[in-house]
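User: What would this chain look like folded?
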Amino acid sequence: MSKENLLMDVNDLSVTFGAGANTVEAVKNCSMTVHEGEPIGIVGESGSGKSTLARVLAGLQQPSAGKVLYRGENVFTGNKSYKNGFRNQVQMVFQDPYGSLNPQLTGLSAVSEAVRIHKKVGSDEAEAIALELLQQMGISRLDALKKPRQLSGGQRQRVSVARALSASPSVLLADEPTSAIDQSAQAQLLKLFQGLLGEGLAIVLVSHDLGVIRFLTKRVYVMKEGLFIESGDTETVFNDPQEEYTKLLLASIPGELGKAARAKLKKS
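Assistant: Here's the prediction, encoded as structure tokens.
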């Protein structure tokens, strides 16, 4: 891909927690790129470091070493991140939609609040924009007036996506967005993500669910113990994995993909 549509450029990124004997290297020398309208997957087991990496990309976690560039500018300057008007451009949707929403606010109020902050508009205009965003996410006016506890897991996640989109971002980071919702809601959310990709939004999907990664993404990074051990075109990596760890991940999933991976493992 050309440098003209390069949004994010991650160079030798590392994140270390603790000190001395208690040091934990959560992310180790990871490099990756994100281009406009590109669907990227980051896959690995729990504890592999993928959520920590996503938090760094979102500007929520300071790296210990390396750089994250957004449109050529360093995301981190001192203790601050995404300066010079870039704050809105990279937004994150978290794994637990209930925990990420204020339980005292209706979905409409939560999204309206975000619209007011990001777009600097009055209350009436913010509410109109928020309602339109929620309806685009498949949330009716009636459901928009409900609080998080009154919504299904899938509805809460779609409210979270609407709130993230209120900033009109170029990159959406989605950290395990399907893990807390049922299969029907997963299908709705993935269809929604496909539509957003068609509108030019780049999506970085962080997940341990290889089926979801294969469905949505074009390029994938496989993460183990903080390292990217394999990366490339999603179909190529899934159909012809080079690393034993990737083969084992694929063999653990149900369906034809897992069956084929298990057969390859037996032959190797």
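The domain at 3-267 is CATH 3.40.50.300 (Rossmann fold). If you want, I can go into more detail on any region.
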